[in-house]
Design goal:
The complex is a heterodimer of chains A (about 400) and B (about 190). Chain A contains 14 helices and 15 strands. Chain A is of the alpha/beta class and about 400 residues long. Chain A folds into 2 domains: about 260 residues, 3-Layer(aba) Sandwich (Rossmann fold); about 140 residues, 3-Layer(aba) Sandwich (Rossmann fold). In chain A, the strands form 3 sheets. A 7-stranded mixed β-sheet of chain A has the order 3-2-4-5-7-6-12, sandwiched between helices. In chain A, helix 13 links the parallel strand 13 and strand 14. In chain A, helix 4 packs parallel to helix 6 and helix 11 crosses helix 14. Chain B is α/β, with parallel strands linked by helices and about 190 residues long. Chain B has a single domain, classed as Pyruvate-ferredoxin oxidoreductase, PFOR, domain III (Pyruvate-ferredoxin Oxidoreductase, domain 3, 3-Layer(aba) Sandwich), CATH 3.40.920.10. In chain B, about 40% of the residues lie in helices and about 20% in strands. Chain B has 9 helices and 7 strands. In chain B, strands 2-3-1-4-5-6-7 form a 7-stranded mixed β-sheet. In chain B, helix 6 runs antiparallel to helix 9, helix 7 crosses helix 9 and helix 8 runs antiparallel to helix 9. The chains are: A alpha/beta (about 400), B alpha/beta (about 190). Chains A and B meet through strand 1, helix 11 and helix 14 of A and helix 1, helix 2 and strand 2 of B.
Chain lengths: ~400, ~190
């Protein structure tokens, strides 16, 4: 602890109040990107506004390309990354949908693009408010996906994302997501680092394949059925194997910056009977506060927060929840028509099944289009889990919390 | 409603009530930043809804000596900062405020009348008058910050003034800082 504190004293330049969007912009500046291309969309816009300011006032020496759409934004950074540049873009909601085909192209071309995604609900009806439907629709595109829960974590995760994406064993794009509005527009303390420490942590990988007229190669050509499957399998295999690299980068980051990040975050889970599995800031923060209240009233409550979403942290999650009596997964997104409508609930169920573990899993959907999630809702959920566990009767379908009936 | 946890009890919760265009969101952010500058923990976030000029808006601030975990709207603020006396009824402020109401009104009598049922502390300031004098416009956010500082000891006026200067730039910043200073001096404890 003392060691970690002394590291913080050395690496931290200043402690300031920032929104998660501004924290993202400061991280992008600290890693010294070469090319930014973006198109504004709420609630992402303040990230790229801040970056435009950094470029305009000379604090960041980067090419800033204001494009005409999100499809072009991702295409432009794909091109720049293919030429060897370190790149960044950001989007939300309809913008991420509009990028969708290029999301697959980015991972298929093995380009280390980093993108910030403050999550937002999708049209129709039009909503500017936060949830994670946009992110969940992008989960099968071969990107590494991290979901942060504080502005500090957004800053730290974007720094880690460059190191992970550009690692020669990975070479895959990384999304860093977080709550639209509830984080993107919330001001909270962030400790910014001296940029030389960040740059030392994120050296550029100059060895990767890139478009260079002196050594011509072709990228993105057609693959015949004899080879498509094998090339795609490499992406799938690398994404799965990237977990070891992600774990390694987390350990090195913790050592270099005196932090304590893991692929999941555990809060009061060691002796917990009832565990809420969450992602993002509002779900996780409110669940933690609810766990404290539940503990003060004698319920052994805990929270496991999924920080690395793709590749899925199967072993870490199972290790954390193996002794719980029952778990509930809080989803802020929907998979319409599936067995359970909460997408991550299905992931947790397959994780348990894959290791032959039988454990009751309750699927809960809340916070859709920023429907207010109260601490009390999560406290009530702990009481419900206690009730299910005592009676042995579990709901066989998703619980839609906060829905007006 | 279930009681707050022990940790949450050490948190001061402030809600700013204004109308779109009056700068309630900026005021909340400035208070949070001032607290962060002094080494405290803070979070501030607006209630995003209809972003229209004139529509009632709320912005929340939590201040604490411990890291702040909860991310829910503030339902029972310790302090309500009310940018216009007419908002008291719209948001049912006397019923939900735990400790203190800081309110902009044109007279003390109006405040007494509106808040006769409220048992906590009331701070009155003629913010429209002060803002018109210094800024020439009825934008009262910095004026209301001055009145709030009379009852908030977690942050100090010099830090807030410096942040106001930083936020609004040199010329507008100075005028806003003067409005803040005058409100700080002239705000009256009604009860």
């Amino acid at each position: 602890m003392t060691k970690a504190l002394s590291i913080r004293e050395e690496v931290v330049k200043e402690r300031v109040g920032l929104t998660s969007n501004y924290a993202a912009a400061y991280a992008v500046k600290a890693v010294d990107v070469d090319v930014i291309a973006a198109y504004p969309i709420t609630p992402q816009t303040t990230i790229i506004e801040k970056l435009a300011e950094f470029v305009a006032n000379g604090e960041l020496d980067a090419e800033y390309i204001p494009v005409e759409s999100e499809h072009s934004a991702l295409s432009a950074v794909v091109g720049a990354a293919a030429a060897g540049a370190r790149v960044f873009t950001a989007t939300s909601a309809q913008g991420l949908e509009f990028m969708h085909e290029v999301l697959h192209i980015t991972s298929g071309l093995r380009l280390p693009v980093v993108m910030a995604v403050p999550g937002r609900a999708l049209s129709a009806p039009i909503s500017i408010h936060g949830d994670y439907q946009d992110l969940m629709n992008a989960r099968d595109t071969g990107w590494i996906i991290m979901i942060a829960s504080t502005a500090q974590e957004v800053y730290d995760s974007i720094i880690m994302a460059y190191r992970i994406a550009e690692d020669r064993r990975v070479l895959l794009p990384v999304m860093v997501s977080y709550d639209g509005f509830l984080m993107s527009h919330t001001t909270e303390p962030v400790e910014l680092y001296h940029e030389e420490y960040v740059r030392r942590f994120t050296p550029r990988n100059l060895e990767r394949y890139r478009l260079d007229p002196r050594k011509p190669i072709t990228m993105g050509v057609i693959a015949s059925p004899e080879w498509y499957y094998e090339i795609k399998y490499q992406v799938i295999h690398t994404l799965k194997e990237s977990k070891a690299v992600i774990r390694e980068v987390h350990e090195e980051f913790n050592k270099a910056f005196g932090t304590n990040y893991g692929l999941i975050e555990k809060f009061m889970v060691d002796d917990a009977d009832y565990v809420l599995i969450t992602y993002g800031g509002a779900s996780s923060g409110n669940a933690k506060e609810a766990a404290r209240r539940a503990r003060e009233r004698g319920l052994r409550a805990g929270v496991v927060r999924i920080r690395l979403f793709r590749p899925f942290p199967t072993e870490e999650l199972i290790e954390a929840i193996k002794d719980a009596k029952v778990v509930a997964v809080i989803d802020r997104a929907l998979t319409p028509g599936n067995v359970y409508e909460g997408p991550v609930a299905s992931d947790v169920i397959s994780a348990l099944y894959s290791r032959g573990i039988e454990k009751p899993v309750v699927s809960v959907v809340h916070g859709i289009s920023q429907r207010t999630m109260f601490v009390e809702d999560f406290y009530n959920l702990y009481k419900m889990l206690d009730e299910y566990s005592k009676t042995g009767k579990y709901p066989g379908s998703t619980i839609f919390m906060g829905l007006r009936t | 409603m279930i009681p707050r946890s022990k940790m949450a009890n050490s948190t001061v919760e402030i809600t700013f009530y204004g109308r779109g265009g009056q700068g309630a969101v900026t005021a909340a952010q400035i208070i949070a930043q001032a607290a962060i500058k002094r080494g405290l923990f803070a979070s501030s976030f607006p209630e995003y809804g209809a972003e229209r000029r004139g529509a009632p808006v709320r912005a929340y601030v939590r201040l604490s000596r411990e890291p702040i975990v909860a991310r829910e709207p503030i339902e029972r603020p310790n302090i309500s900062v009310v940018f216009d006396v007419r908002l008291l009824r719209i948001f049912n402020i006397p019923a939900i405020t735990r400790d203190t109401i800081v309110v902009n009104a044109s007279s003390k009598d109006e405040v007494k009348q509106e808040l006769s049922s409220f048992n906590g502390k009331v701070i009155y300031v003629n913010a429209y008058g002060i803002a018109m004098k210094h800024l020439g416009r009825p934008i009262v956010n910095t004026t209301m910050l001055g009145a709030l500082l009379r009852v908030l000891d977690l942050v100090d006026i010099e830090t807030v003034k410096a942040l106001v200067m930083e936020t609004f730039g040199s010329k507008a910043g100075r005028a806003n800082a003067e409005a803040l200073e005058e409100a700080y001096k002239t705000a009256e404890v009604v009860s």
